[in-house]
Design a protein that fits this description.
The complex is a heterodimer of chains A (about 850) and B (about 130). Chain A is an all-alpha fold and about 850 residues long. Among the domains of chain A are: about 110 residues, Serine Threonine Protein Phosphatase 5, Tetratricopeptide repeat; about 180 residues, Serine Threonine Protein Phosphatase 5, Tetratricopeptide repeat (Alpha Horseshoe). Helix content of chain A is about 70%, strand content about 0%. In chain A, α21 packs antiparallel against α22 and α40 packs parallel to α43. Chain A is globular, with a radius of gyration of 33 Å. Chain B has about 130 residues and is an alpha+beta fold. Chain B has a single domain, classed as Aminopeptidase. Chain B is about 30% helix and about 35% strand. Chain B is built from three helices and six strands. Chain B has a six-stranded mixed beta sheet, sandwiched between helices. In chain B, β3, α2 and β4 form a beta-alpha-beta unit. In chain B, about 30% of the residues are buried. Classes of the chains: A mainly alpha (about 850), B alpha+beta (about 130). Chains A and B meet through α11, α13, α29, α30 and α31 of A and α1 and α2 of B. Chain B: This is Acyl-CoA N-acyltransferase.
């Protein structure tokens, strides 16, 4: 072993002090630790290890910047000390900078190969970073160093498994089982380990062995998770076992929990009955099985409902009638949502509609006298179902009429009001919708579900302040604002809706702020797994831990994240294309009353926080605040800095980066990737993105626009792309847009192919705009959406109107009037003053008073 | 999120969800065991949170979820009883626990919640 470098070695007094310093740190006696460190440094101011320890202690005391600087200095002064690198790693780990932390730990290990603490931390970091090769090595070393610690065996097995090597994982477990002595009975840890072992065998397709291990240990009660045993058994037997035994296994599960639809599917599969591909004999057999269950387990809803999916014709009608009547008598609000999934079958839908219409007639009271005190009755639930039914097939007017009739009978049922709100929303009257749901909320002020719905509908109507008031009835009173509490609680629904509301109102900075908040929530979700790399090992709950890792691997494909990423990208691309947009947005922003109030409150809260921090720092400067980063004060509460970012495309890419790997089936994702890539001059990435989009939906309207955009960008290149890249891009481009298929890009041809789709006309117009066609030609293409045989969706009309405004079309207002006429029941095309009238009509008396005052 | 992850990774067999046909969660029970108990108590189950969407009421989901959790508490951890806290003002929840599920009042805990509200500590024996 190399002699200790001269500057690291300390004479006996200081070396004793250093040992004491380490102990004081371990026991978190921070003030004493500081004093001790300073004693050493007085004589040896360049002792790297002491400097690091002092820096570490300062960080614990909240003086992070000072601490960090000292640590870095200490590292520089003693590059070959494992202590300095370990300390640096700890600091970085506390900041959740896992990559850098692992580098530091790797350095530390160079100088102290067998340090258990460092090895353990390194293992956690390697798992976090999915560096499984390294993880196996680390876990192996840990096991070698301490083979009598049970965890170390399991740690190695899991490392092999994560590294894609279940076979080696199995070998380690087998070895481990052989070392076990005196396992207590009914030991939950042992039970979980056995279930993990069985899972490994399953993965290795060693089914007889898996079953054997399962059965032996189930019998001896070594495995105590009964449901786990039953599910595993059924699963294994379904893959590899006599069908009769598999059937028994599924039946046992159904007996235990008759409400799990997967158990029924499993059972039917053992009889070769595939619910997605039924034959006539199959159908009858399946129905018989389900009927038996219904008879023997009357409280089970699942077999009854499955029977509706499977049956057809007259049999369906009989079963459906019984099912529906039962639900109507019980007054089950979710009946329609339940039945709706049958509507992909037109006959079934027609049959249901016919039944309900006749039932409604039969229940219609002869004298239309509303009784406000009556309990909701079958008649009411029938009307409610029919309203949902008609709205779902687009007949919103009829839905509203039915709801009005129902409300006459029972004005106090919140579900009727929320349904009215939903119908109005679909009709494009967000204000009317918000007012309706507010009526529901007022009927039960204690109900948070209604509160959330009412607030959400206000956000959809752009009433951000009013929404905040409603949310505030349930959020923590000491939070800076209702929104801050909801963000703290990681409410993705709130963040998405608020962001979208800001975006629709053109407050792009505030929208970006919320989209970034969503990004942070997901970042936190990803960071959360860190502690479990050690925790789950100590608890031996391996199966659920592996499920956690799997879930984290797919985390960024969550719909809320994709929504935020795509919306933020759109904003950043817009700002990149036209920086004046950012300037306009920021100069026009005059805060509303509520925004000013909230700002004042937040400022007060921040001031208070600072005062308390100062007090705290003075009084309890010795308090251990740990190594975790505390949230710094928000320097950009309105997202102004975000919107003014000098490199918006870089920001956009940060949002999009995880998506191509996880959301390959989303054409929107590929379009967004294209939009950013092309503007960054990454032609190959851009072309590949469109190729992926093409594979998903070659005639997609947004894709069409990008084809035109790409052709234009490529042909306007000032200088050809360099060497090899140029050749690859040219090749990819000719594969994407072959010369022979030039007609694909032709505007008229595209329009002809999709003559009844409003989105195609919009896409064609944008294509013409990109190619510099005269404005009136572009606008003419737009206006074809009003032709009688063109199917124009409300959403498309809204998007078109936005675009006409953005591109300063002289016919924007003309479009607005035409759209207002076409979507007569919608309010979104009304002018600001027309909307304000509607808005005021919806405010409560108190709120109107506030506006006047 | 951590709160949920801790429950699920420590007591994986005790929590359940109710899903609609699209796999969206419409109800759940989040449960755990309390094993660090003094000499006067035994290890017991604890219902940390039970919730069903208002739009999915009247299906008996809360009861079904809680029963699954209770059976696991008894089978896996040999829990002798299950406990929970409920706000004294939360009448619907009180009714669910007391009338539908058979919990009985154990003790009143003053100012149990962060906002100062009292809680009823309720218990249900799992011994057959």
């Amino acid at each position: 072993m190399a002699p200790t470098p001269a500057k690291r070695a300390l004479p006996s007094k200081e070396s004793g002090l250093f040992r004491e310093l380490l102990n004081l740190y371990e026991s978190r006696q921070l003030k004493k630790g500081l004093k001790t460190a300073d004693q050493i440094l007085k004589k040896y101011p360049e002792h790297g290890e002491t400097l690091c320890m002092k820096g570490l202690i300062l960080t614990h005391m909240g003086k992070r910047e000072e601490g960090r600087e000292l640590v870095k200095k200490g590292v520089r002064l003693d590059l070959t000390s494992h202590i300095v690198w370990h300390v640096f790693g700890l600091i970085q780990k506390g900041e959740k900078n896992y990559e850098e932390a692992l580098k530091s730990y790797t350095q530390a290990l160079k100088f102290d190969k067998e340090n258990m603490n460092i090895l353990r931390d390194a293992a956690h970091l390697q798992t976090q970073l999915r560096n499984f090769d390294g993880l196996v090595d680390t876990r192996y070393l840990l096991l070698k160093l301490r083979p009598n610690l049970r965890q170390n065996w399991i740690g190695l097995a899991v490392a092999h498994h994560l590294n894609g090597n279940p076979s080696d994982a199995k070998k380690v477990l087998e070895h481990y089982q052989r070392t076990l002595k005196n396992v207590p009975d009914y030991d939950v840890e042992q039970s979980e380990l056995l279930l993990y072992h069985v899972r490994l065998l399953e993965e290795l397709e060693e089914y007889p062995e898996a079953l054997n291990m399962l059965d032996i240990n189930a019998k001896s009660r070594a495995i105590v998770d009964r449901v786990g045993i039953m599910e595993t058994r059924a699963r294994i037997l379904s893959k590899h076992g006599p069908p009769e035994e598999a059937e028994h296994a599924w039946r046992a599960l159904i007996q235990h929990n008759p409400d799990n639809v997967n158990y029924y599917k499993g059972l039917l599969a053992t009889k070769n009955i595939d619910l997605d591909a039924l034959s006539e004999t199959n159908r009858a057999d399946a129905l018989q099985i389900l009927q038996d269950f219904t008879t023997h387990i009357p409280r089970a809803d699942t077999p009854r409902r499955l029977a509706l999916t499977i049956s057809t014709g007259d049999e369906f009608e009989t079963l459906a009638k019984a099912y529906v009547l039962r639900a109507l008598k019980k007054g089950i609000p979710s009946l329609f949502v339940d039945i709706k999934t049958l509507y992909s079958d037109d006959q079934k839908r027609a049959s249901i509609e016919a039944f309900f219409e006749s039932y409604r007639e039969s229940l219609e009271p002869s004298t239309p006298s509303p009784d406000p005190d009556a309990d909701p009755t079958e008649y009411l639930w029938t009307l409610y179902f029919l309203a949902q039914h008609y709205s779902s097939v687009g007949n919103h007017a009829r839905a509203l009429t039915l709801l009005d009739t129902a409300l006459l009978h029972t004005p106090t049922l919140p579900d009727l009001h929320t349904m009215r709100g939903r119908v109005l929303k679909r009709l494009g009257d967000p204000l009317g919708a918000a007012n309706a749901v507010e009526q529901a909320r007022l009927l039960d002020g204690q109900d948070r579900f209604l509160n959330t719905k009412a607030a959400k509908y206000r956000l959809r109507a752009g009433l951000t302040d009013e929404a905040s008031d409603v949310f505030g009835l349930f959020t923590r009173k000491d939070a800076p604002s209702p929104g801050a509490d909801l963000e703290d609680m990681q409410s993705l629904m709130y963040l998405v809706e608020e962001a979208n509301a800001h975006r629709r109102k053109g407050k792009l900075h505030q929208a970006l702020k919320k989209y970034h908040a969503i990004l942070k929530v997901f970042q936190d979700f990803e960071d959360d797994q860190f502690d479990f790399h050690g925790y789950s090992l100590r608890k031996f709950t391996i199966n659920i831990y592996l499920n956690l890792i799997s879930w984290e691997d797919k985390l960024w494909s969550h719909p809320a994240y994709i929504t935020a990423a795509l919306a933020a990208t759109q904003i950043y691309v817009t700002v990149h294309d036209d920086p004046s947009v950012a300037k306009d947005v920021l100069s026009s922003g005059t805060s509303s009353e509520a925004e000013k109030k909230a700002k004042k409150k937040a400022k007060k809260a921040a001031q208070k926080q600072q005062e308390e921090a100062k007090k705290g720092a003075a009084a309890s400067g010795n308090e251990d605040k740990g190594l975790e980063l505390v949230q710094p004060k928000d320097e950009d509460p309105d997202g102004v800095k975000l919107l003014s970012d000098p490199d918006p495309l870089e920001r956009a890419w940060k949002f999009l980066a995880p998506l191509p790997g996880l959301a390959q089936d989303s054409i929107d994702v590929w379009i967004a990737v294209y939009d950013v890539a092309i503007r960054r001059g990454k032609y190959l990435q851009a072309v590949r993105a469109l190729s992926n989009a093409k594979a998903l939906d070659p005639e997609n309207a947004e894709l069409y626009v990008r084809y035109v955009h790409l052709r234009k960008a490529y042909s306007s290149l000032a200088s050809p792309l360099p060497g090899s890249v140029g050749a690859v891009v040219a090749k990819a481009l000719s594969s994407l847009l072959p010369e022979e298929q030039q007609s694909q890009l032709d505007t008229n041809q595209y329009l002809q192919r999709h003559s009844t789709d409003g989105r195609a006309a919009f896409a064609a117009a944008r294509g013409q705009y990109i190619l510099g066609s005269p404005r009136d030609e572009v606008d003419n293409t737009i206006f074809t959406v009003f032709n009688p045989d063109v199917n124009l969706l409300l959403k498309t009309a809204i998007d078109i109107f936005s675009w006409l405004n953005e591109t300063h079309s002289p016919r924007a207002d003309e479009f607005r009037v035409a759209a207002d006429k076409k979507f007569a029941l919608s309010t979104v095309f009304k002018t600001a003053s027309e909307q304000a009238t509607v808005e005021k009509e919806g405010l409560s008396v108190e709120e109107q008073q506030e506006v006047i005052d | 999120m951590r709160y949920y992850l801790e429950h699920l990774t420590t007591w994986p067999s005790l929590s359940y969800v109710a899903e609609d046909s699209k796999g969206r969660i419409v109800g759940y029970v989040l449960a755990k065991m309390v094993q660090d108990v003094g000499p006067d108590d035994e290890p017991h189950g604890h219902l940390s949170s039970v919730s069903v969407l208002r739009s999915y009421r009247r299906l008996g989901l809360a009861k079904k979820l809680v029963i699954q959790s209770q059976e696991a508490m008894a089978a896996v951890y040999k829990a002798s009883y299950v406990a929970l806290h409920v706000r004294t003002s939360n009448r619907p929840a009180l009714s669910l626990y007391r009338d539908t599920l058979g919990f009985s009042l154990h003790v009143l805990k003053r100012k149990h919640y962060a906002d100062g509200e009292d809680a009823y500590a309720m218990r249900l024996s799992l011994e057959h």
